[in-house]
Each structure stands twice: as C-alpha cells, then as structure tokens.
Amino acid sequence: MNQQPQDERTRIREAMDRLLTGQPTVSDGSFTAAALAAEAGVHRMALYKRHADLKREFDERVRTETKQVPETEKRLRETVTKLKESLSNKEAELKELRQLVTNLTLASAVLTQPDRASTEAGLTPDNVVPFRPRASQAAGPAGPPDPAG
After folding, report:
1. pLDDT of residue 138
2. Higher pLDDT, 139 or 24
3. Using CB atoms within 10 A of its CB, is residue 44 exposed (0-12), middle (13-18) or buried (19+)?
C-alpha cells in the first residue's frame, strides 16, 4: 500500500474519533458518510470505494458507542416501512377490485340470461322485435318551422 491511501486511512480514523466524541472541526458533526468524508478531507466516493471497511467500521462504532442507528439505516428502515404500507394498500385495492369483477360478472350473467317469465310466455330472442324509434323521433327534436319553407 502506498503512502497516500495509508494517510487517507489515518485521517479517516482520526475523523471518526472526532465525530464520535462530538468534536467535529470541518463537518456538521452528523454520523453520516458524507460528514466522515468531509471531516477526513477525502472524497466521499473514496470512502465508499477504497475504504469501505472503514465506513462499515464507522457505522458499527456509531451503533455501539452512541447507541444510535446510522442515518443510512434509518432511511432504509423508513423506506421499507413506506413500501410495506404501499404494498398493503395495493393488496387491499386488488382485493376490492377482484370483488368488483365478481359482482360485475354476476350482474352481467343475470342481465344477459333470458327472463324465465318471457321464456314461459313463448317470447324468445328470435321472435322479439327490438324497439326502433319512429322516423320523426330518429330525425331529432322538431325545431321551429322554417320560414322559407
């Protein structure tokens, strides 16, 4: 390992100690990776990529030394809670829609089934004549007479 990453690791560990003792010098003092990177003077991506072990160590120390849950874990837990609630709502909506489909299917079957009284009277679909409006009704409502006509 060359000198620069070792120097970064030393700065990150020192920054951890400052944050956990409540003595930040550069950052806002929050227990986040961004605050740790700022406090150590390293790019946040360097913390995630080259020093992921130190980031995990920081999260573990936050959990054990301060009895707090790291910010990332809090956000993930909130997201999981929202997703569970959304899933529950979707399941309820799906149940309601399935019931509606069942009801509509039953209503359609009742409405399209031949009426027993009509069948007993001899009315079947081949001898039932559909209603057709008279020519005057089909043309639309009559307006005032045309003065020219």
Report:
1. 54
2. 24
3. middle
Ordered DSSP codes for 53-110: HHHHHHHHHHHHHH----HHHHHHHHHHHHHHHHHHHHHHHHHHHHHHHHHHHHHHHH
Looking at the predicted structure, is the pLDDT value of residue 145 above 90? no
Q: Does residue 51 contact residue 4 with C-beta atoms inside 8 Å?
A: no
* Cβ neighbours of residue 30 closer than 8 Å, sequence gap 6 or more: 71
> Quick check: 139 pLDDT over 60?
no
Dihedral, CA of residue 111, residue 113, residue 118 and residue 119, to nearest 10: 180
SS3 content of the chain, % helix, strand, coil (to 5): 70, 0, 30
